[in-house]
Write a structure and sequence with these properties.
Layout lengths: L11 H14 L3 E3 L9 E2 L2 H13 L1 E9 L12 E7 L2 E5 L9 H7 L3 E4 L2 H10 L6 E4 H7 L7 H9 L1 E3 L15 H12 L1 H14 L3 H13 L22 H21 L3 H4 L2 H10 L4 H5 L7 H4 L2 H13 L21 H4 L1 H21 L3 H4 L2 H9 L7 H10 L4 H17 L3
Parallel strand pairs: 1-8, 2-5, 3-6, 6-7
Antiparallel strand pairs: 3-4, 4-5
Helix pairs in contact: 1-6, 2-3, 5-8, 6-8, 10-12, 10-15, 17-19, 17-21, 20-21
Length: 426
């Protein structure tokens, strides 16, 4: 059993007592496994029906987490779903084994409030399973709004509840089957204290007068649409800045697209098909033959050698492209240029940005908020680069609203931002 308790769930009162004791001693209590033990993984319809009955009989919000296989698999699927509810205990579900049988879980979960940590990371893969919360509470976002500088789950649990969570498996290959017991312990602990943590943070936000702000932020996360596909995702290749010529960039694009297609087919992380560094190295070296390509690092490996002829064909295809099909050296963008170029391109815009940043920093410091949570930096830059003709509070508020700012953010910033923009107007 876990270090803090031999049997039964850890109650909110116990968590409070433990937090106080931990503060007094300076030593958080290390949890190696859940208080009630780690439950078996639910992987068949009968076990799912029993688990859903327990969840339905529970009360309050459901703590939710997922484990993916980032760095191993191409698709960001959930390979384990962890749930915990008062009166229900912890449930671990294998969504891969139950891919066609999750309707009972949707019936239980989709009409409840969820508690998640960094919800935006988990919601997309849960939505793929047809799982969507009625409302949510994000403990990471709550921690930011409450003014904590470090908001990792383990950090907040230590600070507010007095426990240290077992670490070490977040970057594991969760597509592996069967999952090792120590991995399952780690996964179960991720939801063990989420509801208690939520209670602490909710009380703190209420005491600071920020609870309504948090609710607006949580709803924005819950209803956020999927991000738009990047126009030229290959430009995110690590090290691509070393390639200067359009022809060289075309070669990076050809190899990136070929790697991406192969990664999709094999459901493997692209970096495990071919590292970014190998793509950039091949383009820079400009090999003319298979032998020259195989002489380069990575391509000389046993697995890669059978693909080198294909990689070389893509490098050569880039050389054959007409000039009209070569990519631009600079990435297309509908936004303002990099801030470090503003002073040269538009000194007035640079002055507006400096004034706006100073005004927002003062508000953030006064309200004990990260300035990036007060107002998205990209929205600030866009507003300063092309401000509205009318710099009244109402006009600036309209611009912020159109850019996705929440009511609480607009209320705090519109007037100050308008004054900052007006102060630099020529």
């Amino acid at each position: 059993m876990g270090t803090a308790q031999a049997d039964g769930a850890r109650t909110g009162d116990e968590a409070t007592e433990n937090s106080e004791a931990s503060e007094a001693s300076g030593t958080p209590v290390l949890l190696r496994e859940p208080a009630e033990g780690t439950p078996p993984v639910v992987a068949d319809p009968a076990a799912l029906a029993e688990a859903c009955a327990r969840l339905a009989a529970g009360t309050g919000a459901v703590a939710v987490d997922t484990e993916r296989a980032s760095g191993y698999r191409y698709w960001p699927k959930a390979y384990l779903v962890q749930l915990r509810r008062e009166g229900s205990g912890t449930v671990l579900i294998d969504p891969i084994a139950l891919a066609d049988d999750l309707a009972p879980l949707r019936d239980v979960l989709n009409d409840t409030e969820w508690v998640l940590h960094a919800a935006s990371q988990d919601l997309p893969c849960l939505a793929e399973l047809g799982l969507r919360p009625r409302s949510l509470f994000d403990t990471e976002l709550a921690g930011r709004l409450a003014g904590y500088e470090r908001v990792a789950l383990g950090t907040l649990v230590e600070l507010l509840l007095g426990y240290t969570l077992e670490k070490g498996h977040s970057a594991a290959d969760w597509s592996k089957r069967p999952l090792p017991v120590d991995w399952l312990n780690y996964a179960a602990l991720d939801v063990e204290l989420l509801n208690e943590l939520r209670e602490k943070l909710e009380a703190e936000l209420a005491a600071q007068g920020k609870l309504e702000w948090a609710r607006q932020e949580f709803e924005a996360v819950r209803t956020a649409p999927p991000p738009a596909p990047r126009a030229e995702p290959w430009r995110r290749t690590s090290g691509v800045h070393k390639i200067r010529s359009p022809r060289g960039l075309a070669a990076v694009r050809e190899m990136w697209q070929a790697r991406d297609e192969l990664a999709r087919k094999r459901d493997r992380a692209p970096s495990r098909i071919l590292p970014d560094s190998a793509i950039v190295n091949a383009v820079t070296a400009d090999p003319k033959t298979v032998e020259e390509l195989q002489a380069l690092p990575v391509f000389s490996g046993r697995v890669q050698r059978k693909y080198t002829a294909s990689w070389l064909r893509h490098l050569q295809a880039a050389k054959a492209l007409p000039a009209s099909e070569l990519p631009s050296p600079s990435q297309p963008s509908d936004g303002p240029p990099p801030v470090n170029r503003w002073a040269d391109k538009d000194p007035d815009a640079a002055a507006r940005l400096a004034a706006a940043r100073a005004a927002l920093a003062a508000i953030a410091e006064d309200r004990k908020l990260p300035v990036e949570n007060l107002l998205l930096p990209d929205l600030v830059r866009r507003t300063c680069w092309r401000p509205p003709a009318d710099l009244s509070e109402d006009s600036v508020a309209d611009v912020l609203r159109a850019g996705g700012a929440r009511p609480w953010q607009i209320e705090l910033t519109a007037a100050a931002l308008g004054k900052a923009l007006h102060s630099t107007a020529s």
